[in-house]
Every structure is written in structure tokens, then in C-alpha cells.
Design goal:
This protein is mainly β. Helix content is about 10%, strand content about 35%. It has one helix and six strands. Strand 1 and strand 2 form a beta hairpin. About 25% of the residues are buried.
Length: about 130
């Protein structure tokens, strides 16, 4: 699998966990140019793209990637995802990033964090209708 050319993504830089180590949120930094050869192995990258088959502004195609041996490994893809996409992606992000060690400060797991441009993303339950 390859990511589209000239398409950036959000490098997941850290996670927030509850006392039982369940993922409650994650932080990422936008990177306009990504190459698996230049990112550390195990880097988790999130792409949010316009839906290929629609123009609803509330929907997004979500792609979740992991770098491994200089290549992209797709962890998940959700087409036409609504506002609850973070809830769907959270278990895979949780599995891909190691939990911080007990009694230590939060751990940056993928890449140095650029706090000025790091969007804060929260895992929230999907709304049921």
C-alpha cells in the first residue's frame, strides 16, 4: 500500500490514558510531506481525506498507517466516517503505541512534538441515531 503523493498526515506523538491504561485521547502534529523511509519505525500516521464518493462536509475518509521496515502498513480505513471516527480509530492507536511506564511522565512515542501545530484529537463515542 502507498499513501497518495503530496498528501500529508498527522503523526501521532502521544496518547492520554486512564488509570487502567485505556486510551482516552491522542495528540498529533501535522506533517505536509511524509515518507516511511524518513520516519522512525513504529510511527503512527493518521490521514483525514475528503470522501471519495460524496461531498457531505460532516464525513471524512480516515486512514491509519504504521511505518515498518521503511514501508507503510495500513492499520485501518474507515470510509465516509462521521463525527465518531476517533472512537473507531482509538483501539488501533492504543494497540500500535506502547503504554507509558508506571510512575513516569507521559511518553512521546512516535516523533518530536511540535506543540504550536499539534491538533488535539479526542476519542469520543459515536453518536447513535
Amino acid at each position: 500500500m502507498r499513501m497518495p503523493r503530496n498528501t500529508g498526515g498527522i503523526v501521532i506523538t502521544s496518547t492520554d490514558r486512564d488509570p487502567h491504561q485505556a486510551l482516552t485521547g491522542f495528540t498529533g502534529a501535522w506533517k505536509p510531506n511524509l515518507s516511511p523511509a524518513t520516519l522512525p519505525a513504529g510511527t503512527v500516521v493518521l490521514q483525514l481525506l475528503p470522501p471519495a464518493d460524496g461531498d457531505d462536509p460532516d464525513l471524512v475518509d480516515v486512514w491509519l498507517w504504521l511505518t515498518r521496515h521503511g514501508r507503510w502498513l495500513m492499520l485501518g480505513c474507515w470510509k465516509n466516517a462521521g463525527p465518531g471516527w476517533t472512537y473507531r480509530a482509538a483501539p488501533l492507536i492504543h494497540a500500535a503505541l506502547p503504554a507509558p511506564q508506571a510512575n513516569t511522565a507521559p511518553q512521546n512515542t512516535a516523533a518530536p512534538q511540535d506543540t504550536a501545530s499539534s491538533p488535539r484529537l479526542r476519542a469520543v463515542p459515536a453518536r447513535r441515531t
